[in-house]
Design goal:
Length: 56
C-alpha cells in the first residue's frame, strides 16, 4: 500500500494471484463476477490433487 492505494511491482508480478489469499488487509481481491466465473470453470479441479512435479 502506498498513499492508500494498492501498488504492484510489475517487474516481479507473475499474475499468479497468490497475493489475494495472503493480503492481511484484503486489499487484493478478485471482483465477485470474476470469482464466480473462475468457480464455474475451475471448481471441479479443487478435488484433484496431484504430487508436485519437478522439471530439470
Amino acid at each position: 500500500m502506498e498513499n492508500d492505494s494498492v501498488v504492484t511491482d510489475a517487474e516481479t508480478c507473475c499474475l499468479c494471484m497468490a497475493c489475494t489469499t495472503v493480503c492481511p488487509k484484503h486489499a487484493r481481491i478478485l471482483p465477485p463476477p470474476l470469482q464466480e466465473k473462475m468457480q464455474q470453470m475451475l471448481g471441479v479441479l479443487k478435488s484433484v490433487r496431484r504430487e508436485n512435479e519437478y522439471f530439470v
